[in-house]
Design a protein that fits this description.
- It is a single chain.
- By secondary structure, the protein is α+β, with helices and mostly antiparallel strands.
- It has 74 helices and 29 strands.
- Helix 67 packs across helix 68 (1690-1697).
């Protein structure tokens, strides 16, 4: 239908337009445009305007069919000719032409740009863009800069960081409202507007006419494309379709905004002009299409629950005048009905999906709401309707960007902000319904943060548009949709409603955009002040906060474990923090000075009213409901924090803002309940509620929450305690913690509310809470810097911390917009004052440390504060960790050797307002508790711990420190009519009560208690102290009526106090009878009968303390008053010796303080000490008690034993790991010799690490070495130049691999294969430079059959291992080193090998013959034994380790020559790598670490066994060519038909050596080995001479030829390099080798004149690599040690070690390499034979012949690429670099650190046959090992085969920390040591052993 309508509209009635060409004809757009422009420039331009309107009408409505395409699919028919796309583009072309007025569009753009006065950058970006934030330059904390502006500004030394935008943003450069001008970049430093020329009128004239139509056209599209989503089908799809079709139009608008200020002001005019809008959109007139579009618009408004004010029938409301607060306009009776209906329609779909069994939502009556805010929208301009559709379509990214791009225009900014505020309620409704609320939230904040961060703007909108009213109302409205009835306290009758944390709204944080806007505007002082002055707003806000009061209620499960653990608690904590606490901190930041007192009074007043309402709503009287706790009391916390601020900053009198006593009592109940519940949770009393309750307890104290949760709670309790009756408060605490019944003198008691096993920890909890309450000063007078210092010390004492974790752990002012930023000046200065920096270190295991901060010694000494630590620990183990560290410090510094107690720390002075808090320490109830506990501890009653004693002493000490000064010694403390504990203590001052003796106490005990079973003698009691001591069992007296005895019942006491306050009449209170027990708590019938007994005590607190001292020290009379010896102590009391120590020290300290405070105490202490106490007889312990004590002791002992064992095991393991794992340090390794070298043992003996048996390896039961086979390309990465390659960081720098060792060898082989016989080529070189197989072992052996069963067990073990058993991988059963194969040990005796090594005196000629014969014997594979099978299988493993392309180089695939080449190359690879591990030469000699655990010997056996299967045809055996002269005609024959053999001089000598040795039967004889080496050395030396002759120029050659020829006939001519060189030159001159001296050859000519020394050095360098490899080989085969030497004598030492130097050689004259030669046949003959081969080849291919002769033999050690100092240089280049395959910027770019290739991690674009690019690259570049730097994370990732691991980062920040994922975005610098470690692990192939966390990558990286 829509399609038809649209088609009709096109051909619909249009006014006749004679002057325009018919629509069908092609229109010359430019001409028309020019014509129209001219027409419009005339003074009377009405005709032109009409003409233009008509044209636009036609052109733009030609686009109509487009929407049809979106609705119905019959678009093609409607679109006619070119389809909708064509019409579309046509229209855009028209618009461009018209704007340019006939000129070129690009020139037009350039012209407009010239008039851009914008001093703002305003670049808009979307999520994931990398931007910068500089705190030094920022005024608003939201300030951000694009990378370009940041790098062009000067921010050196500033506090800045790089960040990835979460929601998108815009660059603030140039905006002085948001940032300081000093930080502007060069482009945006304020330009004065005068030098920008005025815009000529005609330039933008056409735009003013065309753009309104264009925007209207866009709006019509949006109207038509929108269909209300049906209830069940989400309509995102349709909306996205419409948006895609509109993409070009919106992009066109976006491009216009980028033309600069001139065009933006035109656009602003168009968007905000109300007349234009009215004319175009009124929907009047005859155009059917316009009518229809207007109808659709009205429908959309209605369906959104909004009314269009024209339909006056709904509300008769006038818009409130701007001045009055909208909240005051209330009571629309009519409104409620409508809103009710609206709500139901709004919510039905959500309610339906809510599932059964959920609690029903509560609906509030909405009459209080201001309807106009929620429901009225009237659009008066294009901008308003555009925003409406932007919201309706859920904020499409393009539209958002367009709207934001306009912001640099000031006029637009104001208009847009007002429009945004006007639509605020509508935004919230759309957000609530949205399916993609996350994306939408981000887009909303993207816009709002740009508008509300600007204080001036925020203030203006607050004044003109009631921004605050709107925000608060909208928030309230939003939360109302998910309220449920509160079940706190009185479940049935509660009237309180709370938010339901299980709702999506809270769970998904849907509210955060609104809350974050609110916090943002409250950060502006002017706005916050309005809020704090507006009583109506405050009431509404407290209303809002009360929705969170008591949410997420926990009920303790008492029977079974809860079935379903809800995880809603995190939503609850997040909601309280974000929606309540952060706005609170925002408001508090403006209440800093006296002038703001009024604000605090307002908040406190409405807060108290809200609290009173809350108490009423939940029917709270005085007892909290048992077994319930909620951690959420935001009203209490608002109240507390405003009180704190009032006292601290505003000098307000605390009492003036405190309520009456009754209210205070109510206020303290719930926070106290939370403290008690924390103790219960830690005592495992809530264990049936699951883990989530522990999670809540931890979150409550966690660093991000503690400021807004536990701290205000404790502060509020401190305030209550300071104003309430202390006895009442103390007894409340013990009752809440359920330990009242425990506080009895009797040895047994019954606790009706607590199980015995929880008593101890609950008592500890209660006392610890009191200690915290009394010693914490966070809100009671500490300055901000002191608080920061205390927090920092507490965190550092628990553990050493990194800088970033400290920043994170220290609770900053949690309002992010407060401007107090972490990392601000004071943080750094405090940190440097309290901590030392420990630079990052490496452990040999390879685990990398970060830079850490550790507390200074004086901090441990003076500032360690256990109370603060306890308050701030999330995990209980952290308290222990802090104590352990403290103990270690004391031991180390020699201050205290034993196990210390937590030290007592002096507190900062209390603020005078809170002096009352100290009355708690001086109240009788507390003193009775302390007395009772001291007594119980002394009598060893059960359920008391050292911790209890520690806290009791702490409280006594606090009391002594804070005693009332005015109380003098002699004054009889006669207080007012104390009714309660008179018989216990006379007064309430601790100092005097300490000396008060208590004689008898009446207790209630169970009849079974020992006190009741009396002996008849006990009825008469002697009063002496000694008799009490001697019997140690309290005497029981029958005198019930004894006036001295008292029943101590805290609970009754407390009840009575409360009653008193409630009744407010003292006369009544005086008559209250003291009940004997608390009847409330004794459950009748459940317990044995209680009887009353009277105990004789006769102790005072002082005497108990002294006895305790005896008990703790285990000695009688251990306490001696120190002042008797040294009277000075009393004058100068601060004695360092008492600062640290255990319980004994603490008791001494307390007694000293007591004596100091009063002379009487001093006297009494002396008296008590004088009464010499007789020795204590052993305690009589009842059998039951004995049992429990024994159990405890046994447990303790068992625990100690276990600890000891574990420690021993750990140290063993450590020492083992050090020997087994160490890769780099040869010194401290104990050699693990594989074969024992004593001659008397006939066979090598191996230990199997699985079955533990020792024995030789035999044919039937072979033993094998645990080995790891891996393909390696490390050798191939050697380069021949010295300076290492750098990682490319610009387009120009590229790395080419042509100079690597692998590339050079490849070229050489392919060159040989072009000209020579394939089989011969494959013997002339080695492969394995890339993808060679490296074999390493941990040195442990096992039986091969044991290994098979071990593998079976691994296969069945389903635990996730980091390796794949199916691929044969396992870990060594002993040292857990990673391995994947077993190399069989060849059975053989050592003695035999000793015989083989005896030198024989045969001549070299005989040896040569023997070698030839032995090689000629074909090696039959031994019979089918277990050993031979294993040999075969390990060979298969070796082959399968590397890829086929690294094994097959032959032209005929699968030829045996290939296998042959591969096998000897494996030996070559392992020797070369060992050489590299030794640093590239053998100067250090000795058996290096690599040599010790080498498996080359075994490997050689396996390889030799297989190579002997291939016999080389004796015709072609190179041995013949080396040792015999061949007849001439043979070599020349038939070279035309078949390809030649490779000339001997082109052979690689090291390869020949390995071939010759592996072809010999094993074990090899030493003299055969030496013989082979001698023969090969002659060839090598000849090659060196040839290469030298080619390198030098013609003149040098002829000179040498001449000098050598003269000496030819001397005796040692064959050993003189001059003679040999001249002979070589003369021989080769016969061919064409030297003739090709063309121009290109000049490069090779060395400019240096050759001296004999330099020639000698050249020859030695040429031969050294061969000598090194050969010496290593000899070392492994015959077990000879390598001598160490200086670098310059390496050649001579190695050659004599190899037996090349004759023994009689004198070393006086300089060493000459030629003296090592020992020619098997006359030198000149064989040389000429060799040269002949070359000459015959160079006849045809002179150039190649020459290239093959010059071999580069001096490779440098392999290195990784050099990285730049600063990470930013890498990041800026690579994070925007495009992928070469798909030319997009990859999501996770990475770069290979071996070759510098840029790859996409996990990128699908570069995937080939299911392999992603990194995995593929690791196979091509490193044969399965890849080292990649992940650009966006600064982390290095290692790929090894099918596994990968995160290695860590080599870039650290200024504090020595990694910044994985660049989360902190601080500047990072290279850490050279780490990079070295990485390179070392790469070269030594130890990634698998050192890195522990490997996982499979499934080819997806």
């Amino acid at each position: 239908m829509a399609a038809a309508a649209a088609a009709a509209a096109v051909g619909g009635p249009q006014p006749p337009q004679p002057e325009l060409p018919a629509p069908g004809l092609a229109v010359d757009k430019a001409a028309t445009a020019a014509h129209l422009k001219a027409a419009l420039s005339r003074p009377d331009n009405r005709a032109g305007a009409e003409e233009l309107q008509a044209l636009l009408e036609r052109v733009l409505s030609a686009e109509r069919p487009l929407t049809a395409a979106a609705d119905g699919e019959e678009a093609a028919a409607a679109g006619g000719g070119g389809g909708p796309g064509a019409a579309e583009e046509e229209a855009l072309e028209w618009c461009k032409c018209l704007l340019a007025g006939g000129g070129g569009y690009d020139e037009f753009c350039a012209a407009v740009r010239a008039y851009d006065p914008a001093a703002l950058c305003g670049l808009v970006w979307t999520a994931n863009f990398v931007a910068y934030r500089c705190r030094t330059c920022g005024i608003s904390p939201c300030m951000s800069l694009c990378a370009e502006c940041f790098h062009q500004g000067d921010h050196t030394g500033h506090d800045f960081n790089m960040f990835r935008s979460q929601a998108g943003g815009a660059c603030d450069c140039g905006d002085s409202n948001v940032m300081r001008e000093s930080g502007f970049c060069k482009r945006h430093q304020i330009k004065s507007s005068s030098n920008i020329p005025c815009v000529p009128k005609d330039l933008l004239m056409m735009s003013e006419f065309v753009l309104p139509r264009f925007i209207f056209c866009l709006i019509q599209y949006l109207r038509e494309g929108y269909n209300e989503p049906a209830a069940d089908v989400p309509s995102e799809k349709d909306l996205n379709k419409v948006l895609q079709l509109l993409e070009p139009q919106i992009s066109f608008l976006e491009d216009l905004t980028k033309m600069g200020g001139a065009m933006r002001s035109v656009l602003t005019q168009v968007l905000t002009n109300q007349q234009n809008y009215k004319d175009l959109t009124s929907g009047l007139g005859e155009n059917a299409c316009a009518k229809k579009s207007h109808e659709k618009y009205l429908i959309a408004l209605k369906s959104s629950g909004l009314t269009y004010p024209e339909d006056k029938l709904v509300y008769g409301i006038q818009e409130p005048s701007a001045g009055t607060s909208t909240l005051a306009v209330q009571g629309f009776a009519g409104a409620t009905g409508t809103l009710g209906q609206l709500d139901s329609s709004d919510e039905e779909d959500q309610d339906g999906s809510q599932g059964l069994g959920k609690r029903k939502r509560v609906k509030l009556s909405s009459s209080t709401k201001d309807q106009s805010i929620m429901d009225v929208l009237k659009h008066k301009s294009f901008l308003e309707e555009l925003l409406f559709w932007t919201i309706k379509y859920e904020f499409p990214q393009k539209m958002v960007t367009f709207l934001l791009n306009m912001l640099p225009d000031q006029e637009y900014k104001v208009a847009f902000t007002k429009t945004f505020v006007q639509h605020y309620a509508f935004i919230m409704k759309t957000l609530k319904k949205s399916h993609e609320s996350d994306t939408m939230s981000n887009r909303i904040v993207h816009i709002s943060v740009q508008l509300f961060s600007n204080e001036e703007l925020a203030r203006q909108v607050t004044e003109e548009c009631q921004l605050l009213d709107i925000m608060v109302t909208v928030l309230l409205y939003m939360m109302e949709s998910c309220l449920i009835k509160s079940e706190l306290q009185d479940e049935e009758n509660s009237l309180h409603v709370v938010v339901n944390c299980g709702e999506a709204l809270l769970k998904n944080n849907t509210y955060w955009p609104l809350v974050s806007d609110f916090i943002n505007i409250l950060s502006h002082q002017s706005v916050a002040k309005r809020f704090l002055e507006d009583h109506g707003l405050l009431v509404t806000w407290m209303n809002f906060v009360s929705f969170f009061q008591g949410m997420n209620l926990n009920k303790r499960e008492l029977n079974e474990h809860v079935e379903f653990e809800s995880q809603t608690y995190y939503a609850a904590f997040a909601a309280e923090l974000e929606a309540c606490a952060q706005p609170m901190w925002g408001l508090l930041s403006h209440c800093k000075v006296r002038e703001t007192q009024e604000y605090t009074r307002n908040v406190v007043r409405y807060c108290l009213e809200a609290l009173q309402d809350w108490f009423d709503a939940i029917n709270f009287v005085d007892e909290p409901a048992p077994n319930q706790v909620t951690f959420h009391l935001p009203l209490h916390r608002y109240y507390a924090m405003f009180l704190s601020k009032a006292v601290k900053c505003q000098e307000l009198d605390l009492d003036s803002v405190l309520p009456d006593q009754e209210m205070l009592m109510k206020l303290m109940i719930h926070p106290l309940q939370i403290q008690a519940s924390l103790a219960e949770i830690h005592s495992n009393m809530w264990v049936r509620n699951g883990l989530q309750i522990k999670g809540q307890a931890m979150t409550y104290v966690q660093s991000h929450f503690c400021n807004s949760m536990i701290d205000p709670d404790i502060y509020l309790l401190q305030v209550c305690a300071s104003r309430l009756d202390p006895d009442y408060f103390i007894s409340s605490v013990f009752e809440r913690f359920k330990v009242v019944d425990l506080l009895t003198m009797a040895s047994q008691h019954q606790n009706t509310v607590l199980d015995a096993e929880h008593e101890r920890s609950m008592l500890e909890g209660a006392l610890t809470f009191l200690v915290i309450l009394l010693s914490l000063r966070l809100h009671l007078g500490m300055s901000d810097d002191e608080i920061l210092r205390a927090e920092m010390v507490a965190q550092l004492c628990m553990n050493d911390r990194t800088h970033s974790s400290l920043l994170d752990l220290i609770p900053e002012n949690p309002n992010p917009k407060s401007g107090i930023i972490p990392g601000s000046y004071s943080f750094e200065s405090v940190l440097s004052a309290v901590a030392d920096f420990k630079a990052p270190v490496f452990e040999p295991g390879g685990s990398m440390q970060q830079g850490m901060y550790t507390p200074k010694a004086e901090v441990w000494d003076q500032e360690f504060d256990p109370v603060m630590v306890i308050l701030r620990t999330v995990y209980r183990r952290d308290v222990q960790s802090a104590m352990d560290r403290y103990t270690a410090f004391l031991k180390q510094s020699g201050k205290f050797p034993g196990n210390p107690w937590p030290p007592y720390k002096k507190r900062t002075p209390l603020h005078p307002s809170y002096k009352g808090l100290m009355r708690l320490l001086h109240c009788k109830t507390l003193h009775i508790v302390l007395f009772t506990l001291l007594y119980k501890i002394l009598m060893d009653h059960q359920n008391l711990s050292e911790h209890v004693l520690c806290m009791v002493l702490y409280l006594i000490e606090l009391g002594l420190e804070n005693s009332a000064e005015e109380e003098s010694d002699e004054e009889a403390s006669v207080c007012g009519p104390e009714r309660c504990h008179d018989s216990w203590f006379p007064g309430s001052n601790l100092v005097s009560n300490m000396r008060h003796f208590i004689n008898y106490v009446r207790v209630r005990v169970p009849e079974t208690a020992p006190e009741v079973k009396r002996d008849s003698l006990a009825s008469t009691s002697s009063d002496s102290l000694s008799s009490l001591q001697s019997s140690r069992r309290p005497k029981v007296l029958q005198r019930e009526n004894s006036g001295t005895a008292q029943v101590f019942s805290l609970v009754a006491e407390r009840r009575k106090k409360f009653q008193e306050i409630i009744n407010r009449s003292s006369s009544e209170a005086n008559q209250v009878v003291r009940p004997k027990t608390s009847s409330k708590w004794s459950a009748p019938g459940s317990a044995p009968q209680l009887t009353t007994a009277i105990l004789e005590i006769k102790e005072s607190i002082l005497s108990l303390l002294i006895k305790l001292h005896h008990k703790l020290s285990g000695k009688q009379n251990s306490y001696y008053p120190p002042w008797l010896d040294d009277i000075e102590i009393l004058i100068q009391p601060e004695i360092p010796k008492y600062n640290h120590g255990d319980g004994i020290t603490a008791v001494e300290r307390i007694l000293l303080k007591a004596a100091l405070q009063s002379r009487m105490n001093k006297r009494i202490i002396e008296e008590i000490c004088r009464k010499v106490t007789p020795p204590v007889p052993p305690k009589k312990i009842t059998a039951a008690e004995k049992k429990t004590l024994d159990k405890e002791e046994r447990r303790q002992k068992a625990r100690e034993r276990q600890q000891k064992l574990l420690a021993e095991f750990a140290s063993r393991q450590k020492s083992f790991m050090e020997t087994a794992m160490d890769v780099d340090s040869p010194e401290n390794d104990i050699p693990m010799e594989i074969t024992t070298a004593e001659p008397q043992v006939s066979e090598a003996v191996y230990d199997c690490v699985i079955c533990g048996q020792s024995g030789p390896s035999s044919e039937d039961r072979p033993t094998g070495l645990v080995v790891l086979l891996q393909a390696s390309s490390v050798l191939g990465q050697c380069r021949d130049n010295i300076d290492p390659k750098k990682l490319p960081i610009t387009e120009e720098e590229q790395i080419y691999p042509w100079d690597t060792c692998a590339a050079v060898h490849d070229v050489r082989l392919s060159l040989l294969q072009r000209y020579f016989k394939d089989s011969s080529c494959l013997l002339a070189v080695s492969i394995g430079w890339e993808g060679g197989v490296y074999v390493q072992t941990c040195g442990h052996t096992l039986h091969i059959d044991c290994h098979k069963s071990y593998m079976e067990s691994l296969r069945n073990d389903q635990v996730l291992q980091g390796f794949s058993v199916d691929k044969g991988e396992f870990t060594c059963p002993l040292c857990r080193q990673f391995a994947n194969s077993v190399l069989p040990c060849y059975p053989g005796s050592n003695v035999e090998s000793n015989l083989w090594q005896r030198p024989s005196n045969k001549s070299i000629q005989d040896l040569i013959k023997e070698v030839e014969e032995l090689q000629g014997r074909p090696g039959a594979f031994p019979s089918e034994t277990n050993l031979s099978k294993e040999m075969e299988s390990v060979m298969k493993d070796i082959k399968n380790t590397t890829q086929k392309k690294y094994r097959d180089y032959s032209k005929t695939p699968g030829s045996p020559d290939n296998d042959f080449l591969f096998m000897y190359s494996v030996a070559r690879t392992n020797l070369e790598l060992e050489l590299i591990h030794r640093g590239g030469n053998l100067c250090s000699g000795g058996a290096s670490t690599a040599g010790k655990r080498s498996c080359l010997n075994q490997l050689f056996h396996v390889l030799a066994l297989h190579m002997r299967l291939y016999s080389i045809d004796s015709e072609y055996n190179p041995w013949r060519k080396l040792t015999q002269l061949v007849e001439e005609e043979n070599s020349q024959q038939g070279n035309e038909e078949q390809q030649l053999e490779v000339p001997v001089l082109y052979h690689d000598v090291t390869s020949l050596l390995l071939i010759q040795i592996l072809m010999m039967p094993q074990p090899l004889r030493k003299d055969h080995f030496t013989c082979i080496v001698k023969v090969l050395f002659t060839l090598l030396y000849t090659q060196a001479l040839v290469a030298l002759s080619v390198k030098c120029n013609e003149e040098d050659r002829s000179a040498w030829k001449h000098t050598g020829a003269l000496k030819k006939n001397t005796s040692d001519a064959e050993k003189s390099y001059e003679v040999l060189l001249s002979f070589v030159i003369s021989e080769l001159s016969k061919g064409r080798l030297y003739h090709e001296e063309g121009t290109q050859e000049c490069a090779m000519v060395s400019p240096v004149a050759w001296s004999p020394e330099s020639m000698e050095k050249y020859l030695q360098d040429f031969c050294l690599p061969f000598l090194r490899i050969t010496s290593l080989l000899q070392h492994h085969l015959f077990g000879e040690d390598l001598p160490s030497c200086q670098e310059e004598e390496e050649f001579s030492v190695l050659s004599s070690c190899l037996g090349l130097l004759p023994t009689f050689y004198q070393t006086e004259h300089p060493f000459i390499s030629a003296s090592c030669l020992d020619w098997p046949v006359p030198a000149f003959d064989i040389i000429s034979q060799w040269c002949l081969e070359i000459n015959s080849f160079t006849e045809r291919h002179a150039e190649q012949g020459k290239a093959l002769l010059i071999q580069e033999s001096r490779w440098k050690l392999p290195h990784l690429l050099q990285l730049p100092e600063n990470y930013n240089t890498i990041f800026q280049y690579y994070h925007r670099k495009t992928c070469s395959v798909c030319t997009k910027v990859p999501k996770d770019p990475a770069v290979c650190l071996v070759c510098g290739t840029f790859v996409c991690l996990k990128g699908l674009c570069c995937k080939q046959q299911s392999y992603c690019e990194c995995v593929l690259h690791s196979q091509n570049c490193g044969a399965g090992t890849g080292i990649f730097l992940l650009i966006n994370a600064s982390v290095i990732i290692i790929i090894r085969g099918h596994r990968f691991c995160l290695w860590g980062s080599v870039y650290l920040d200024a504090h020595g920390e990694e910044d994985r994922d660049l989360r902190r975005g601080k500047p990072l610098y290279i850490c050279k040591e780490r990079y070295k470690v990485l390179e070392q692990q790469w070269i030594s192939h130890t990634f698998d052993h050192i890195n522990k966390r490997w996982g499979p990558h499934y080819n997806g990286l």
